[in-house]
């Protein structure tokens, strides 16, 4: 990005995976829960299965602003189901404590300087499929700043519902064609593109703990591809 110049008026960021490393802290918590004899390969597989369960689980929830089932509670439910698949018996209190790792994610090294530089030139906001309390805690803990913190809880629905992207632009006071969705997940960017947003794909090779499990925009599907927020257009 040129110093003092941004291509768009607003940048809307996904958080888990895009801004935050979830795999490292969640793996650490799962390993602690399973004990010192836990096989590292099993721990990694369980974390990836837990993450996949989260995606599938939230899309089945019948959510609304008035009746919001906390995503944090969904993590607890999901861990129980995933442990059962792995033949592991974790008590409910251990599952609750282990699931708190999703509220203690760690920003990738480029995120804080990248966001700080970008905020001097454009509006910076989040649009995350999580609870407001979790997002506020993450930004405070990681000392990150944004002009607006928006999450699925405010909308009573999850991405990739079209209206979340449309309403986010409305809240920020920008036309979609003057804003960009920034994410490491193709489904998010495709949905944003449908309402006219520009798209920035962020390649995070270790999002799922292994390069072989990473997702990349090798075909140039999106408007921009970066590996560091300091290179955002």
UniProtKB/TrEMBL annotation:
Keyword check for RNA-binding: no
Xref: SUPFAM superfamilies: HAD-like (SSF56784)
Pfam families linked to this entry: Hydrolase
Bilayer-spanning residue ranges: none
A GO molecular-function annotation: hydrolase activity, acting on acid halide bonds, in C-halide compounds
Keyword set includes Hydrolase: yes
InterPro entries the UniProt entry points to: 2-HAD (IPR006328), HAD-like_sf (IPR036412), HAD-SF_hydro_IA (IPR006439), HAD_sf (IPR023214), PGP-like_dom2 (IPR023198), S-2-haloacid_dehalogenase (IPR051540)
Family statement: Belongs to the HAD-like hydrolase superfamily. S-2-haloalkanoic acid dehalogenase family.
Protein name stated in the entry: Haloacid dehalogenase type II
High-level lineage: Bacteria, Bacillati, Actinomycetota, Actinomycetes, Mycobacteriales
């Amino acid at each position: 990005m040129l110093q003092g110049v941004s291509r768009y008026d607003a940048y809307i960021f996904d958080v888990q995976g895009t801004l935050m490393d979830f795999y490292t802290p969640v793996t650490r918590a799962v390993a602690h829960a399973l004990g010192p004899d836990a096989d590292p390969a099993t721990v990694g597989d369980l974390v990836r299965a837990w993450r996949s369960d989260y995606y599938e689980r939230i899309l089945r929830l019948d959510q609304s602003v008035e009746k919001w089932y906390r995503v944090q509670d969904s993590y607890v439910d999901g861990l129980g189901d995933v442990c059962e698949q792995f033949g592991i018996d974790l008590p409910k209190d251990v599952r609750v404590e282990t699931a708190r790792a999703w509220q203690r994610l760690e920003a990738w090294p480029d995120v804080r300087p990248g966001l700080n530089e970008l905020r001097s030139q454009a509006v910076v906001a989040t649009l995350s499929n999580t609870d407001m309390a979790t997002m506020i805690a993450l930004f405070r803990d990681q000392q990150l700043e944004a002009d607006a913190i928006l999450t699925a809880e405010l909308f009573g629905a999850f991405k990739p519902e079209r209206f979340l992207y449309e309403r986010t632009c409305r809240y920020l006071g920008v036309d979609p064609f003057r804003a960009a969705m920034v994410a490491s997940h193709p489904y998010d960017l495709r949905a944003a593109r449908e309402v006219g947003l520009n798209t920035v794909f962020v390649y995070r090779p270790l999002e799922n703990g292994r390069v072989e499990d990473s997702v990349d925009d090798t075909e140039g599907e999106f408007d921009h591809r970066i590996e560091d927020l300091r290179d955002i257009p």
